[in-house]
Amino acid sequence: MKLAVFGAGAVGRSVVELAGEYGHTVTALADSSGAVVDSSGIDVAATLERKASDGTVGDGDPQTALESEYDVLVEATPTTLGDAQPGFGHAREAFARDRDVVLANKGPVAERYDELRALERESEGSLLFEATVGGAIPVLSTITDVGTENVTAVRGVLNGTANFVLSRMATEGLSYEHVLAEAQDLGVAEADPSFDVDGTDAALKCAILANVLFDGGYTLADADVSGIRDLPGSALELAAEDGWTIRLVGEVSPNGVSAAPRLIPENGTLAVSGTRNIVQFETQHAGQLNISGRGAGGDETATAVLADVSRLEREM
Amino acid sequence: MKLAVFGAGAVGRSVVELAGEYGHTVTALADSSGAVVDSSGIDVAATLERKASDGTVGDGDPQTALESEYDVLVEATPTTLGDAQPGFGHAREAFARDRDVVLANKGPVAERYDELRALERESEGSLLFEATVGGAIPVLSTITDVGTENVTAVRGVLNGTANFVLSRMATEGLSYEHVLAEAQDLGVAEADPSFDVDGTDAALKCAILANVLFDGGYTLADADVSGIRDLPGSALELAAEDGWTIRLVGEVSPNGVSAAPRLIPENGTLAVSGTRNIVQFETQHAGQLNISGRGAGGDETATAVLADVSRLEREM
């Protein structure tokens, strides 16, 4: 398949680097700085080198990438809230041209799901977005496999940064501030960690899951969200005395959508440590399924993007 | 899709009961005792009632089911070794008629994989067999998602009966014989438990995984197999002293295929308890993925069968 990739951050770069291994060709790469387009395949190494040295992927106008020849638009620009731009607009243009759309960007499916599905219905193109929930973990394809109506609830640890902080606080008895600084040093937390530690990222993933399970109608505003910023170390100590620990758990069920710190059994399935994620599915006929793995990272998320591209190819 | 279901054991019965929920129609059900065929859909309730009371699904010759009108043949007769009959023959007849084949029966893909793929290549029909490994756990679809070449090894607890016995021995300090008798009372182990406790079932699943990962060439004979029958309770006690436990672990890697009791960390990911299964994937670009869930059971396995049927429908 020919891919036009939007976004040259960690995920976009990994997608263009790995696409060839999966038998696909990158015919365009664009970000806010510029674009490079070549219908026979861009020079991946040279383009990424230029991005690293000059800060731009190429001299082209990003619009030329949207108008170029491709089968699938891969949207990997940063997640934005509210209008979910520019990601939403890229997806809209691709659908208008009857192309498929694969999202790594959570914004369009968390904030404007119903509009996006309406655009998909009017298009020959299809929408997939496995990479938006749980990185390398096959969350959405498992829901498709088991059958949407057969999944009664989904919960899980969906943010690796928050989980790193909480599991270090629990095992080392350190304060939130101490562990956060450590996480920032290690590159696990960003300079402004709000998106992760306030629960926004986990809640966006839950809004996406709710849209998938209940056929749309959800945005971030529908989620009950609380973060881990004000969680005292003493809460973790108290929990540990009785064999419990605390994790930031996202949950989607007919009772609602939430992302908040929860008490869970210390050796239980949900108590993954470090930056790992875990997703737990309650099903009607297949019991409980648990999937854990790396929930973030360029190559991990790119693997989910390329799984979607391969799926589109098989279902063509 | 129209389904012709072969086998009226726990899995076959669940498939015919749940097919309607997934939007499919059962047009034939056959087992060694007879067959019922109705191109507009069999009367599921009446057929299963008759099977329960008279021991037969219907007066028809099973051959009439093979020759009937259907889109997908679902093979759920008991797994047999060596020639893998009658399952293999059913699949061959379906492919000769250009129909799709979905297996719950492990025999044909563990013992005669290369022949089956050759028949598939000559046919318009396609072969899927998610239900043969890990029941409700989406093992093969995860390999497809991640990309076969990207998966470097798979290991896991693949037999619920053996795992029930080992985890009870470890937690209760009971002998193998004691726990086995208990498992038989609970219906977790069969009267003749050899297939499970000798590692054969886990090894068949590993042979199937090896065929998928390495594009064929494997049978049960290629696996190093040892069971749990002679494992003394003292081995589990010794292991526990150092924080380890023992599980029957199946493993597939470029180094070979095996199913044998292994020492694993007591609180580690592989140490699932009771009849649960877990599958661990090592991948090149997506790190380690773990999926746990119910590895057996009629409804659980039927869910995997029906996921395959839906996949065939999407990819048509």
UniProtKB/TrEMBL annotation, chains A, B:
NADP(+) binds at residues 7-12. Keywords: NADP, Oxidoreductase. The active site is at residue 205. InterPro entries: Glu/Leu/Phe/Val/Trp_DH_C, HDH_cat, HDH_CS, HDH_short, NAD(P)-bd_dom_sf. Residues 2-61 form the Glutamate/phenylalanine/leucine/valine/L-tryptophan dehydrogenase C-terminal domain. The keyword Nucleotide-binding does not apply. GO terms for molecular function: homoserine dehydrogenase activity. The keyword Oxidoreductase applies. It comes from the Archaea. It is an enzyme of class 1 (oxidoreductase). One of its GO terms (biological process) is threonine biosynthetic process. Its EC number is 1.1.1.3. Residues 138-309 form the Homoserine dehydrogenase catalytic domain. L-homoserine binds at residue 190. It holds the Pfam family Homoserine_dh. NADPH binds at residue 106. Belongs to the homoserine dehydrogenase family. PANTHER family: HOMOSERINE DEHYDROGENASE (PTHR43331:SF1). This is homoserine dehydrogenase. It comes from Haladaptatus paucihalophilus DX253.
